[in-house]
What we know:
Layout: H1 21-40, E1 64-74, E2 77-86, E3 96-100, E4 106-111, E5 113-118, E6 121-126, E7 138-146, E8 157-158
Amino acid sequence: MDQWTGFSTSTDTYDGVHPNAAGDQKMSDKWYPALVSALSSTSTPTATVTPTITPTVTPPPGGCTATYRNTGQWQGGFQGEVTVRNTGTAPRSSWTVRWTFAGGQQITQIWGGTLSAGGSAVTVQNASWNGLLTPGASTTFGFLASWNGTNPAPTPTCS
């Protein structure tokens, strides 16, 4: 899909790279017709397909790590990234990362996870598309946040 025609990095992104609401709308307007067309095309199957049923896997205790890194900082704001890795021997069907901000930081935007925050306590759970992690696999979520005074790195835990 041609995403550049009609797209302006000065008006359709919040930082010159990541789309804002207007940019998201322009991108979805371009993808929607192509996806509808692809999903509505019909074909005759040539073989019988037997569905595979995959049981829900309950993650074992432990076996999950979360690693934080600050990917950019400016006066009053920063961008963080957390990598979640399955260090266990069985697949995980979901993950939850928690930490406490020590310098009054507050998340203003997140991608790749679902945020729950109260005061300095932060909880991020997987999105619908990145919860399943096979042994050794990892996924990453990121966020934008504000800060005042100091910006100490949090120490995330994973469960």
